Amino acid sequence: MNFLAILRGINVGGKRKILMKDLKELFEVNGFQNIITYIQSGNILFSTAELQDAIQVENLIEKEILARFGFNVPAIVISVPEVKIAIKENPFYKDETDISQLHLTVLRSAPDEDLITDLKEKEFNGDHFEVIGRKVFIKCKGKYSQSKLTNQLFEKKLKVIATTRNWKTVLKIQQLIEDKID
Fold it and tell me: Domain ends where: 23, 51, 81?
């Protein structure tokens, strides 16, 4: 099974620093194969024959990072087919869209519908989001760094672990999947 692991909050502002070569080694030692890392923010494509359940893989990665590096790093794991579906599902991604406005937040699990409904009732200064399963598609009118649609907001309001990637990164991961995995 082919997966994408998205680590939250590594190599940001000099904190929780993990070199990608060290991360790749950690994955290899734990029996993962075909490991491809992309940029320092913790995007890892890999395959495994043993573990088929994303939750098991998340738990293993988190445990191993804590043991080796000494800090907690949330890991969200999605299957490669889920990545491909996410790109097609984005309601904001159209040919004329400025992709610098688009972001994908991946949630550890699908949130409760009532929590989504409550969050949709709030205004976010012209920024918009749509929740589909465990993916949150974001369109910012300005810079993401100025948006209120953050990991912390989704974690607090939807009660689930979240991590976000800009759409340029999502498209690069798609390209890596097409070039190296498919």
Answer: 81
